[in-house]
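Sequence, please.
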């Protein structure tokens, strides 16, 4: 959750309870109480209220992530310890199989 959204929820919280507790247990709050705390309705926000919140908190958009080319993505997989373990185990198994086939 973004700092802006967290600040908005703190500001909108009407009770004296700890906001972090409210955020962690939001699903336990009855729907009418939750809608009241968030100053909304089952139909959503009115357009003027939505415009006011966008002006106050900014648009609800994700930051654009850095795009990677396929080669970079492939090489990044080798940072994972499980991938390295699997490669090592596969190499070991292959050598063992060759050694056994030479003995027969």
């Amino acid at each position: 959750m973004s700092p802006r959204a967290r600040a908005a929820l703190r500001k909108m919280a009407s009770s004296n309870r700890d906001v972090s507790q409210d955020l962690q247990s939001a699903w336990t709050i009855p729907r009418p109480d939750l809608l009241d705390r968030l100053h909304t309705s089952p139909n959503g926000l009115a357009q003027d209220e939505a415009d006011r919140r966008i002006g106050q908190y900014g648009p609800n958009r994700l930051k654009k992530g850095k795009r990677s080319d396929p080669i970079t993505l492939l090489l990044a997989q080798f940072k994972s310890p499980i991938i390295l373990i699997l490669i090592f185990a596969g190499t070991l198994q292959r050598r063992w199989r060759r050694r056994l086939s030479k003995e027969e």
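Residues 27 and 34 are 9 Å apart (CA to CA).
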